[in-house]
Amino acid sequence: MEKLTEQLRQARRVVVLTGSGISADSGVPTFRDPQEGLWAKFQPQDLATPEAFRHDPDFVWQWYQWRRKRVLSVEPNAGHEALATLAEKHPALTLVTQNVDGLHQRAGHRDVIEFHGNIHRNHCLDNGHEVRVEGHPDKPPRCRLCESLARPSVVWFGEAIPERALERSVAAAQQAELFIAIGTSATVYPAAGLADLARENGATIAEINPEATQMSAVDITIRARAAEALPALLAGWD
Ligand code: APR
């Protein structure tokens, strides 16, 4: 941890990439955890796709309603909070998250690049109009402007990363002197490719994860949960 703290002090520009592991300490299942309830026999990869939604919009919509409810019922954890505080203290720390749960923002993190969108927003299928959803409908509502179905504003498998999020993340990774991956299995691209970009440009690569991952050429490995390691990193900074 001392090595990472030292690197954090020296690096003028830092990029942090988070995955579902940082929300695990809040009680939100990671993507590779088995699903529960109605969706137990499905992989997220089977549900988080445009095809699944077209095939059965109500079923996919209900899965998102269940996930939204679960995420709103938990709190950001010490990892989210420590990272938000660190971002206030470090002059140039960019956070890119693969998570759609909004927990970084609820922990007070001000500028979050949402690489895979946000589960609390919806837009319509045909034109991308934002759709405000009242109450808890168990069927996808229709867009007031064009009548097409509302869908969660998350990036489904096979869909493009929001352009602005991609641009900002690539630029930050290319200029980073320190890249810290937290709670991600580094299996889904292009998010997982950001570390390669940083490494190619000379960044030190660090990883905070209780398990080994597919990340290659990691310079600093912290085998710990985010809720333990990030408060320790913040304490080392102060
Ligand atoms: N602290 C830190 N890391 C943790 C913790 C924890 N408390 N608990 C689990 N992890 C790690 C796991 O070891 C695993 O490496 O978090 C990682 C979670 O990996 P995934 O479930 O694959 O989640 P993620 O990497 O975010 O998935 C990336 O895949 O399914 C798509 O779009 C989805 O954004 C998601 C993307």
Write the layout of secondary structure elements.
Layout: H1 2-10, E1 14-18, H2 21-24, H3 44-47, H4 50-55, H5 57-73, H6 78-89, E2 93-97, H7 103-106, E3 112-114, E4 117-124, E5 150-154, H8 163-175, E6 178-182, H9 193-200, E7 204-208, E8 220-222, H10 226-237
Parallel strand pairs: 1-2, 1-6, 2-3, 6-7, 7-8
Antiparallel strand pairs: 4-5
Helix pairs in contact: 1-10, 6-10, 8-9
Function: NAD-dependent lysine deacetylase and desuccinylase that specifically removes acetyl and succinyl groups on target proteins. Modulates the activities of several proteins which are inactive in their acylated form.
Catalytic activity: N(6)-acetyl-L-lysyl-[protein] + NAD(+) + H2O = 2''-O-acetyl-ADP-D-ribose + nicotinamide + L-lysyl-[protein]; N(6)-succinyl-L-lysyl-[protein] + NAD(+) + H2O = 2''-O-succinyl-ADP-D-ribose + nicotinamide + L-lysyl-[protein]
Family: Belongs to the sirtuin family. Class III subfamily.
